[in-house]
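Predict structure. Chain length: 199.
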Amino acid sequence: MTSKVARCGWAAGTEILTLYHDEEWGVPVHDDARHFEFLILEGAQAGLSWLTVLRKRDAYRQAYRGFDPQRVARFAKRDIERLVGNPGIVRNRAKIESSITNARRFLDIQEEFGSFDAYLWRWVDGKPVLNRWRAISEVPPRSELSDTLSRDLKARGFSFVGSTIVYAHLQAVGVVNDHLAGCFRWRELAGTRARGARR
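Prediction complete.
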C-alpha cells in the first residue's frame, strides 16, 4: 500500500481501516454468513466508531461461533451472561440480546426467501447502486432504500436496524457503491455492474 494511491479519506492513516477499505468495503457479498457477520458488527457499532468494532472483530468471531446464525439463534441466558462478561466485544446487554433475536429473525428470512442474500438483493433487482460522490461530505448517512429496508426489517422483528445502520450494511456488502469517484476502488468495483448511477 502506498500513500500515492487515491482512496476514500476515512481509510487513510490506520492500517486496519485501509485494509478493510481496500479489500472488503463495497465488494458485493452473496454469502449469508458474511451478511450475518456485518449485521452483528453494525448493530454493535451503534454509537461507536467502526474502527473500534473492527479491532474487536476476531473476538466477535470467536464469541459468536463464527457468526453462524443457527448457533447464535440458540443462545440462552447463560450465553448472554457470557457475552456481557467478554471484554473482547462491546458489552452492551441490549445489543447482545438484540443480536440473538436478530439471528432468529435472520433464519425466518432464510426460510421465506431461501437466503438472506436473496432477500437483500431483491431490493435493487440484484444490481449494485453506483454513486459518484466527489467528497466524503456528499455521502449520505441514509437513503430512501435504507429507510424502506429498515422499516421492513423492523416489521419482521429485527432491532438495532435503524436506517443509518442499514445503510452502513448496504455500503459494506456492496449493494451500494459509495467509494468516492476518485478512489481507486470505485472503478474496480464499478465494472459492468453499474446501474442507477448518480451523476
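Summary: The domain at 9-190 is CATH 1.10.340.30 (Endonuclease III; domain 1).
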